[in-house]
Specification:
The structure is a homodimer of 110-residue chains. Chain A is an alpha+beta fold and 110 residues long. Chain A has a single domain, classed as Winged helix-like DNA-binding domain superfamily/Winged helix DNA-binding domain (Arc Repressor Mutant, subunit A, Orthogonal Bundle), CATH 1.10.10.10. Chain A starts with 15 loop residues before the first helix and ends in a 5-residue tail after the last helix.
Chain lengths: 110, 110
Amino acid sequence: MSPRSYEHPDTEAIALPRVLFALSEPLRLHMVRMLAERGEVDSIELGPELPRSTLTHHTSLLRESGVVFVRGEGRKCLIRLRGEDLEDRFPGLLGTVLSAAESADEEPGA
Amino acid sequence: MSPRSYEHPDTEAIALPRVLFALSEPLRLHMVRMLAERGEVDSIELGPELPRSTLTHHTSLLRESGVVFVRGEGRKCLIRLRGEDLEDRFPGLLGTVLSAAESADEEPGA
DNA sequence: GTAATTGTGCGAAAATTCTCGAACAGTTAT
DNA sequence: ATAACTGTTCGAGAATTTTCGCACAATTAC
Protein backbone atom coordinates (compact mmCIF):
# COMPACT_ATOMS: atom_id res chain seq x y z
CA MET A 1 0.00 0.00 0.00
CA SER A 2 2.61 2.51 1.00
CA PRO A 3 5.14 2.05 -1.76
CA ARG A 4 7.77 3.93 0.09
CA SER A 5 8.10 7.17 1.92
CA TYR A 6 10.64 9.89 1.27
CA GLU A 7 11.39 12.96 3.33
CA HIS A 8 11.65 16.28 1.61
CA PRO A 9 12.58 19.63 3.08
CA ASP A 10 9.91 22.33 3.03
CA THR A 11 10.47 24.93 0.37
CA GLU A 12 11.37 27.56 2.95
CA ALA A 13 13.90 25.19 4.48
CA ILE A 14 15.89 24.71 1.29
CA ALA A 15 19.37 26.03 2.00
CA LEU A 16 21.47 27.71 -0.66
CA PRO A 17 24.84 26.18 0.23
CA ARG A 18 23.37 22.71 0.15
CA VAL A 19 21.79 23.31 -3.25
CA LEU A 20 25.05 24.63 -4.63
CA PHE A 21 26.91 21.71 -3.16
CA ALA A 22 24.44 19.26 -4.67
CA LEU A 23 24.92 20.86 -8.07
CA SER A 24 28.69 21.07 -7.75
CA GLU A 25 29.16 17.35 -8.28
CA PRO A 26 29.49 16.61 -12.02
CA LEU A 27 27.52 13.41 -11.76
CA ARG A 28 24.66 15.09 -9.94
CA LEU A 29 24.72 18.09 -12.21
CA HIS A 30 24.36 15.69 -15.11
CA MET A 31 21.38 14.08 -13.41
CA VAL A 32 19.75 17.45 -12.85
CA ARG A 33 20.24 18.38 -16.48
CA MET A 34 18.62 15.15 -17.57
CA LEU A 35 15.70 15.82 -15.25
CA ALA A 36 15.32 19.29 -16.72
CA GLU A 37 15.11 17.79 -20.19
CA ARG A 38 12.90 14.82 -19.57
CA GLY A 39 10.71 15.79 -16.65
CA GLU A 40 9.97 12.93 -14.29
CA VAL A 41 12.17 9.95 -14.95
CA ASP A 42 12.79 6.51 -13.60
CA SER A 43 15.73 6.68 -11.23
CA ILE A 44 17.63 4.10 -13.17
CA GLU A 45 17.80 6.42 -16.15
CA LEU A 46 19.91 8.82 -14.13
CA GLY A 47 22.80 6.38 -14.06
CA PRO A 48 22.21 2.97 -15.63
CA GLU A 49 25.84 2.05 -15.32
CA LEU A 50 26.18 2.98 -11.66
CA PRO A 51 25.99 0.58 -8.75
CA ARG A 52 22.56 0.92 -7.20
CA SER A 53 23.82 2.01 -3.83
CA THR A 54 25.83 4.78 -5.45
CA LEU A 55 22.78 5.92 -7.36
CA THR A 56 20.73 5.94 -4.18
CA HIS A 57 23.40 7.99 -2.48
CA HIS A 58 23.23 10.75 -5.07
CA THR A 59 19.48 10.81 -5.47
CA SER A 60 19.11 10.96 -1.71
CA LEU A 61 21.50 13.87 -1.51
CA LEU A 62 19.60 15.71 -4.23
CA ARG A 63 16.35 15.01 -2.41
CA GLU A 64 17.65 16.08 1.00
CA SER A 65 19.04 19.27 -0.42
CA GLY A 66 15.65 20.12 -1.89
CA VAL A 67 16.59 19.84 -5.54
CA VAL A 68 14.42 16.88 -6.51
CA PHE A 69 11.20 15.24 -5.49
CA VAL A 70 11.18 11.47 -5.21
CA ARG A 71 8.19 9.16 -5.13
CA GLY A 72 7.89 5.42 -5.15
CA GLU A 73 5.84 3.82 -7.87
CA GLY A 74 5.61 0.11 -7.52
CA ARG A 75 9.12 -1.15 -7.13
CA LYS A 76 10.60 1.71 -9.04
CA CYS A 77 11.16 5.25 -7.95
CA LEU A 78 10.43 8.29 -10.00
CA ILE A 79 12.32 11.53 -9.70
CA ARG A 80 11.59 15.04 -10.82
CA LEU A 81 13.05 18.47 -10.28
CA ARG A 82 11.45 20.75 -7.73
CA GLY A 83 11.49 23.48 -10.32
CA GLU A 84 8.69 25.60 -8.91
CA ASP A 85 9.85 25.29 -5.33
CA LEU A 86 13.36 26.27 -6.31
CA GLU A 87 12.04 29.14 -8.35
CA ASP A 88 10.04 30.36 -5.36
CA ARG A 89 12.97 29.97 -3.03
CA PHE A 90 15.84 31.13 -5.24
CA PRO A 91 14.44 32.82 -8.35
CA GLY A 92 16.42 32.22 -11.50
CA LEU A 93 19.02 30.05 -9.86
CA LEU A 94 18.23 26.70 -11.44
CA GLY A 95 17.76 28.29 -14.83
CA THR A 96 21.07 30.08 -14.84
CA VAL A 97 22.88 26.98 -13.65
CA LEU A 98 21.30 24.90 -16.39
CA SER A 99 22.14 27.53 -18.99
CA ALA A 100 25.69 27.68 -17.70
CA ALA A 101 25.97 23.91 -17.95
CA GLU A 102 24.76 24.06 -21.53
CA SER A 103 27.23 26.74 -22.53
CA ALA A 104 30.02 24.75 -20.94
CA ASP A 105 29.06 21.83 -23.16
CA GLU A 106 29.54 23.78 -26.33
CA GLU A 107 33.23 24.17 -25.59
CA PRO A 108 34.87 21.18 -27.26
CA GLY A 109 38.43 20.80 -26.01
CA ALA A 110 38.59 23.27 -23.14
CA MET B 1 60.00 44.14 -7.03
CA SER B 2 57.63 41.31 -7.82
CA PRO B 3 55.34 41.48 -4.86
CA ARG B 4 53.93 38.06 -5.51
CA SER B 5 52.50 36.12 -8.36
CA TYR B 6 49.17 34.36 -8.47
CA GLU B 7 47.87 31.97 -11.07
CA HIS B 8 44.40 32.49 -12.42
CA PRO B 9 42.46 30.33 -14.85
CA ASP B 10 41.57 31.88 -18.18
CA THR B 11 37.97 32.92 -18.44
CA GLU B 12 37.20 30.12 -20.88
CA ALA B 13 38.76 27.63 -18.52
CA ILE B 14 36.47 28.44 -15.61
CA ALA B 15 34.53 25.28 -14.83
CA LEU B 16 30.98 25.35 -13.56
CA PRO B 17 31.22 22.54 -11.01
CA ARG B 18 34.25 24.16 -9.44
CA VAL B 19 32.51 27.51 -9.20
CA LEU B 20 29.46 25.94 -7.61
CA PHE B 21 31.66 24.03 -5.23
CA ALA B 22 33.53 27.17 -4.28
CA LEU B 23 30.25 28.92 -3.55
CA SER B 24 28.78 25.98 -1.67
CA GLU B 25 30.96 26.54 1.35
CA PRO B 26 29.22 28.95 3.75
CA LEU B 27 32.45 30.64 4.69
CA ARG B 28 33.44 31.23 1.08
CA LEU B 29 29.96 32.30 0.11
CA HIS B 30 30.17 34.87 2.85
CA MET B 31 33.48 36.07 1.48
CA VAL B 32 32.04 36.39 -1.99
CA ARG B 33 29.11 38.37 -0.70
CA MET B 34 31.43 40.75 1.07
CA LEU B 35 33.45 41.15 -2.11
CA ALA B 36 30.28 41.94 -4.04
CA GLU B 37 29.45 44.66 -1.55
CA ARG B 38 32.82 46.24 -1.07
CA GLY B 39 34.67 45.68 -4.31
CA GLU B 40 38.36 45.04 -3.86
CA VAL B 41 39.23 44.31 -0.27
CA ASP B 42 42.21 43.47 1.84
CA SER B 43 42.26 39.70 2.32
CA ILE B 44 42.25 40.06 6.06
CA GLU B 45 38.81 41.61 5.92
CA LEU B 46 37.40 38.37 4.57
CA GLY B 47 38.05 36.63 7.85
CA PRO B 48 39.83 38.60 10.56
CA GLU B 49 39.19 35.90 13.12
CA LEU B 50 40.49 33.02 11.02
CA PRO B 51 43.95 31.52 11.22
CA ARG B 52 45.96 32.88 8.34
CA SER B 53 46.59 29.52 6.76
CA THR B 54 42.89 28.79 6.76
CA LEU B 55 42.21 32.11 5.11
CA THR B 56 44.83 31.40 2.46
CA HIS B 57 43.26 28.03 1.82
CA HIS B 58 39.87 29.55 1.02
CA THR B 59 41.10 32.49 -0.98
CA SER B 60 43.30 30.17 -3.01
CA LEU B 61 40.38 27.89 -3.73
CA LEU B 62 38.27 30.86 -4.82
CA ARG B 63 41.12 32.05 -7.03
CA GLU B 64 41.78 28.63 -8.58
CA SER B 65 38.11 28.14 -9.32
CA GLY B 66 38.04 31.47 -11.15
CA VAL B 67 35.77 33.32 -8.78
CA VAL B 68 38.22 35.95 -7.55
CA PHE B 69 41.26 37.80 -8.73
CA VAL B 70 44.13 38.18 -6.30
CA ARG B 71 47.01 40.62 -6.46
CA GLY B 72 49.81 41.41 -4.09
CA GLU B 73 50.19 44.96 -2.93
CA GLY B 74 53.16 45.44 -0.68
CA ARG B 75 52.88 42.84 2.02
CA LYS B 76 49.13 42.65 1.77
CA CYS B 77 47.02 40.96 -0.80
CA LEU B 78 43.95 42.44 -2.37
CA ILE B 79 41.05 40.42 -3.65
CA ARG B 80 38.18 41.19 -5.95
CA LEU B 81 35.46 39.29 -7.72
CA ARG B 82 35.94 38.36 -11.35
CA GLY B 83 32.48 39.72 -12.01
CA GLU B 84 32.90 40.45 -15.69
CA ASP B 85 34.70 37.23 -16.46
CA LEU B 86 32.05 35.23 -14.68
CA GLU B 87 29.33 37.15 -16.47
CA ASP B 88 30.98 36.35 -19.79
CA ARG B 89 31.41 32.73 -18.93
CA PHE B 90 28.18 32.03 -17.05
CA PRO B 91 25.75 34.90 -17.60
CA GLY B 92 23.58 35.72 -14.63
CA LEU B 93 25.03 33.05 -12.40
CA LEU B 94 26.83 35.17 -9.86
CA GLY B 95 23.95 37.60 -9.66
CA THR B 96 21.34 34.98 -8.97
CA VAL B 97 23.51 33.31 -6.37
CA LEU B 98 24.06 36.62 -4.61
CA SER B 99 20.35 37.41 -4.74
CA ALA B 100 19.57 33.97 -3.41
CA ALA B 101 22.00 34.47 -0.56
CA GLU B 102 20.34 37.76 0.29
CA SER B 103 16.87 36.29 0.29
CA ALA B 104 18.08 33.51 2.53
CA ASP B 105 19.28 36.13 4.98
CA GLU B 106 15.88 37.69 5.35
CA GLU B 107 14.52 34.51 6.87
CA PRO B 108 14.99 34.90 10.61
CA GLY B 109 14.57 31.54 12.31
CA ALA B 110 14.48 29.53 9.11
C1' DG C 1 3.68 -19.97 -2.74
C1' DT C 2 8.69 -19.03 -5.22
C1' DA C 3 11.60 -16.40 -8.05
C1' DA C 4 13.06 -12.17 -10.17
C1' DT C 5 13.45 -7.22 -9.90
C1' DT C 6 14.24 -2.68 -7.84
C1' DG C 7 15.58 0.43 -4.21
C1' DT C 8 17.28 1.08 0.62
C1' DG C 9 20.38 0.71 4.69
C1' DC C 10 24.67 -0.69 6.64
C1' DG C 11 29.34 -0.82 6.83
C1' DA C 12 33.96 0.04 5.40
C1' DA C 13 37.54 1.74 2.53
C1' DA C 14 39.31 5.39 -0.52
C1' DA C 15 39.44 10.07 -1.74
C1' DT C 16 38.75 14.74 -0.85
C1' DT C 17 38.28 18.70 1.97
C1' DC C 18 38.85 21.42 6.07
C1' DT C 19 41.51 23.18 9.79
C1' DC C 20 45.45 25.00 11.73
C1' DG C 21 50.19 25.15 13.87
C1' DA C 22 54.92 25.91 12.55
C1' DA C 23 58.49 27.38 9.64
C1' DC C 24 59.44 30.37 5.91
C1' DA C 25 59.66 34.42 2.40
C1' DG C 26 58.76 39.10 1.19
C1' DT C 27 57.70 43.96 2.64
C1' DT C 28 57.84 47.86 5.67
C1' DA C 29 59.45 50.56 9.60
C1' DT C 30 62.95 51.93 12.80
C1' DA D 1 70.59 45.55 9.76
C1' DT D 2 66.99 44.38 12.97
C1' DA D 3 62.41 43.91 14.08
C1' DA D 4 57.54 43.79 13.06
C1' DC D 5 54.01 42.45 9.97
C1' DT D 6 51.53 39.83 6.24
C1' DG D 7 50.76 35.92 3.40
C1' DT D 8 52.41 31.31 1.72
C1' DT D 9 53.80 26.55 2.09
C1' DC D 10 54.17 22.24 4.39
C1' DG D 11 52.55 18.81 7.12
C1' DA D 12 49.31 16.25 9.82
C1' DG D 13 44.99 15.25 11.82
C1' DA D 14 39.89 15.66 11.77
C1' DA D 15 35.83 15.72 9.24
C1' DT D 16 33.28 14.92 5.22
C1' DT D 17 32.22 12.80 0.93
C1' DT D 18 32.32 9.22 -2.39
C1' DT D 19 32.16 4.60 -3.77
C1' DC D 20 30.36 0.11 -3.59
C1' DG D 21 29.52 -4.75 -1.92
C1' DC D 22 26.20 -7.10 0.65
C1' DA D 23 22.09 -8.13 3.11
C1' DC D 24 17.46 -6.71 3.37
C1' DA D 25 12.55 -5.01 2.31
C1' DA D 26 9.00 -4.25 -1.02
C1' DT D 27 6.81 -5.21 -5.39
C1' DT D 28 5.82 -7.88 -9.47
C1' DA D 29 5.72 -12.10 -12.30
C1' DC D 30 5.33 -16.93 -12.51
